Description:
With 175 residues, the protein is mainly beta. It has one helix and 14 strands; from the N terminus they run ββββββαββββββββ.
Amino acid sequence: MNRVGNKSPVPTDEAEVQPDGSFCAHDLKPGKYLLVFRGGSEEAPGPFAFFPGVIKASEATEVAVAPGETVSHLLFKVPSLQTFTVGGKISSFNKSELQVKPKVMLASADGFVLAQVYGADVVADGTFALRQVLPGKYWAAVIIDSDGSTKWATRKVEVNVDGNVSDLNLELFAE
């Protein structure tokens, strides 16, 4: 959940979904909230929706919580969406760069990034594949956990995912 007016793309409160599909968030401050459902894991996000069952935050219905009030019986319909694979290659990649363990990250370009962030390791030939990507606009970039001896740079690339992407070309270079 993210309180309406909060500029952070990271939700302020979380609730565990029970086996029967129910959920409950406790001790919320009075106000209006956007509810978001995100299934799957950190490595492979799955189903995603804003309440009552839409993909865009601009189409979501706000849920108002008054002091001392319990809001119940919200029906949250999570749509089934086709997912895609986004793959490609890092240009000018050499095996010495593999030692710094580069990853490719894909993050939603729509502003609310929690539910739509994907990551994949780069393999020895410089290729990568991000699986189960939901449709939408994303920013793609190469991320490196550097030891500080070399400064690495990349350019982020906008990617529109409305089908499988197999030819995404990203850059990684030492500065």
